[in-house]
Amino acid sequence: MTRLGTIARLALCALVFAALIGPHWLSLRFGRGRVAAHAPILFHRTFLRLFGVRVTQSGTPPVSGEAALVLSNHVSWLDIAALGALRPLSFVAKSEIAGWPLVGTLARLQRTVFIDRARRAATASVNAAVGSRLATGDLIVLFAEGTTGDGNRILPFRSSLVGAARTAIQADEGRLDRIRLQPLAITYPRRNGLPVVRGERPEIAWYGDMELAPHLALFVRQGPIDVHVIWGAPILFEAGTDRKSATAQAEAVVRAAMQQAVTGRAPEGPVWAGSRADAPAVTKGADPLGDLPGSGVPAI
Fold first, then answer.
1. How far lies 283's CA from each of 59, 79, 84, in Å?
2. I want to staple 135 with a disulfide (CB 3.0 to 4.6 A). Which of 88, 168, 261, 277 is the partner?
């Protein structure tokens, strides 16, 4: 992509953002949630289309309007746009992002819950905030590794913020008896129509001490990319569920999905003993944004 082409696309993104921010802010201010829920989707889809990012999904996504805490791996800043383009949802993010130019504004407009990871006491307040949102039916994405990885492996999932599921059940005064924990794997299988090999994945990932600006420039230069989102079998979290066990189960599901995506081979043996038996079947409902392929959401 030429520099002029990049500038033109960014300018169009800015125009879409300018057109959406007023109605979006008013929707948040006066509690008319439909506009606030769907404006970020339109912005993310515009960005992805302009920059040649194609998102596909498979698996068992949450029913529209169903409260769910999504436990996902984290590869790149592009994960935010890819997931944000699929359905109304919010994220849990580190507090530093709130102060980033433009990115912080976008995060706040998407009702991101910020956590100061340097403060041990912050976990309780974030659990309370996320639990309150879950109790009202929100879909919240938690990047459970606590950081980004190189796209080749899954880091251990942290269980501390999964306590928000129990907080939601307790906050709802008995009206909500369980919360859906939703394992989710994000993979980047193809670029320019060709399979991404192991050595190329760290070029897509944004992790460690990488500077953001050079990584964005590399993203623009290297051409169209495919993102595949895999929704794992849901885990039903009840008041007596052990959060560490539930987190380990979600990690196992995501790790298996990543392994299959990276190697093309399904893992041997069960992903998790009882991963299906522990969770009753979840009835699929109509999603206003469309159905998934395979169970099939149209590619974005």
1. 13, 27, 23
2. 168
3-class DSSP state for residue 291?
coil
pLDDT per residue as tens digits for the range 75-132: 988 999 999 999 999 999 888 888 888 888 888 888 999 988 777 778 888 999 999 8
Within a 13 Å sphere around the CA of 248, how many CA atoms are in the beta-carbon half? Answer: 8
Distance between terminal CA atoms of the chain? 20
pLDDT in tens, 266-292: 554 444 333 333 333 333 332 322 333
In angstroms, rounded to a whole number, what is the distance separating the alpha carbons of residues 144 and 36? 25
Position 238, amino acid: E
Q: DSSP E strands: which ranges in the chain? A: 53-59, 68-72, 90-94, 113-115, 139-143, 178-191, 194-195, 225-231, 235-238
Q: How many helices (H) and strands (E) does the chain have?
A: 9, 9
In 3D, which of 119, 59, 68, 64 has the Cα closest to residue 95? 119
DSSP string, 210-238: --HHHHHHHHHHH--EEEEEEEPPPEEEE
- Give dist(CA 187, CA 215) in Å, integer: 18
* Both structure tokens of 267: 């893992």
CA distance 84 to 79: 8
Total residue length of the chain: 300
